[in-house]
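Hi Y.,

Following your request, here is the sequence exactly as I used it, all 325 residues.
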Amino acid sequence: MTIWLNTSFQMQFRVIDGLTVRFAQSEDRNDHALLLSPWPESLLAFEQMWARLAEHTHLVAIDLPGFGHSQRRDALLSPRAMGEFLVRAADAFGLEHPHVIGPDVGTAAALFAAAAYPGRLRSLVVGSGGTVVPLQLGGWLKDWVEAPDLDPFRGADPRQIVAGTLTDITRYALPDSVREDYLSSYQGNRFAESMRYVRTYPAELPALAGLLPQVQTPVQIIAGAHDPVVPPVNAEFLHQRLPNSKLYVLDAGHFTWEDAADEYAALVTSWWGGDYAATGPVPPADRGPQQGRSQPDAVIPGGVEDNRNTPAVAEQPDGRKSSAS
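Below is the corresponding structure, written out as tokens. Let me know if you'd prefer a different format.
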């Protein structure tokens, strides 16, 4: 048993689809959730929230292949292929109808999986991952996606590269053990090779955009208002196209799951507690137009824009507004 701060869970490896995958899991419960590691981090990104999320839900967190401390397979380094692996991982752990948390690189993978396997996943929690077409990225992620080739990164110190990205975590002091886990996850050529995943975005994200209106799985989108690498427009893009979604914009940067862990965990537990079921699916006629919905009224911890079955507002002759039936 490995102890991380005040949270006790066992770090293990198992073979899934011929790959050695690192995972952690909590005590068994009636409900289940599969958590996908963000990049360039590992499954320990969920350490702060683990105990709270595990109160009523059985958690299985994995380092995706090629990320964290899981074995790489080059053929899986794209969102569509990783979405297929996500479903195989759920099968391997016997998770029949799990919730999925897929921040960052897990966002597109989880959405591809939901599109390809309707009804297989109970709900998704995504965000802080590139989705807009044409791409709208910033900072180091934009540089990595647009670099002509990987040679400069193969010759660089991967620990310095990863450490540089972690400076965007501004409100949470990473424990030394967690920081070292992140840094050691991408030693040697592992970081440069993991970049192949995001470098497929120009080809893969247009295909995903075309699938979004077909995704009936309820989706909770959590974004950071001050994200310098994946601007909130990416979250808004999803919310405008997914028929059953909620959009939350937190007063945080890119690493919302660490810099705003309390708010993030509260949103997820409320979502799992029933918000996801209330979000959809609903009949298309009841949803109203998907384009041009208003943005969140405020950027606050827990601020929400809900696209559930909102009644249209009609202007009356005397200037009053009422809900149109």
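Confidence is low (pLDDT under 50) at residues 282-325.

Thanks again,
Q.
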